[in-house]
């Protein structure tokens, strides 16, 4: 579908919702989206552009109204999360038909620009030495604060696609969660065959295999998809921050290893017992035994000798 989207050239002026923007450069593409860096200007008295800020534009092509509704859900989620300093900020959005003779829509989502790229890029910069425990704790702490903002909403929001690739870094080296296309409220266990198939399809299409929790794989377990599924994914992310691989990817029967929470710790790099114990606690196969996000942040706050910034 990306063939239907011509790339915007530098200098192209666009209107996104109530904001007029100017394309600076094309950054990347992925799936059915183009990502741009742009000026997010305002007009001065002489009606010329006065550049006041840099922003990011995600331009997404969707083939039908179902896809459009999914993007609208993502935008609605971002609007609810705008006050967290650890979540990429939403600015504005706009959707329109690509042309009159097609069913395709294009959606513009204007958001905060994170100038220090992604957590994956940051890890690759340190691929020889790997990250040290201080760096890992700092990064993971900020990610947990982002997730706490989601989990303490009423009703709670479940990210459902927490992973290294969905963390960006702003100009102050704050680590921020992004990509809310899979986010939902709590999903109760299916009580009919149709609900089972529907949930199976959602998990297959909207989650990342290596980060799926046991209850996402075994839908007959009668557990909801709730905050504890995010906690599991945080455990996978923390393991990958430490060892640059996910804990189950080297097993031939990947799903069985996840269901049994069967993994091991590499001999190197060496990390403290406290950090490894945290991974063990997060990756418990029984979701009821996993901690909630407050307990994780409280644990990390104690280890850093700082006050816990949230209350349960």
UniProtKB/TrEMBL annotation:
Keyword Nucleotide-binding assigned: yes
Keyword match Nucleotide-binding: yes
GO MF entries: ATP binding; protein serine/threonine kinase activity
Keywords carried by this UniProt record: Kinase, Nucleotide-binding, Transferase
Pfam families linked: Pkinase
Record SUPFAM superfamilies: Protein kinase-like (PK-like) (SSF56112)
One BP annotation, GO: actin cortical patch assembly
Residue stretches making up the Protein kinase domain: 21-302
InterPro entries: Kinase-like_dom_sf, Prot_kinase_dom, Ser/Thr_kinase_AS
Gene Ontology terms: cellular component: cytoplasm
Superkingdom, natural source: Eukaryota
Protein name from the UniProt record: Kinase-like protein
Lineage, broadest ranks: Eukaryota, Fungi, Dikarya, Ascomycota, Saccharomycotina
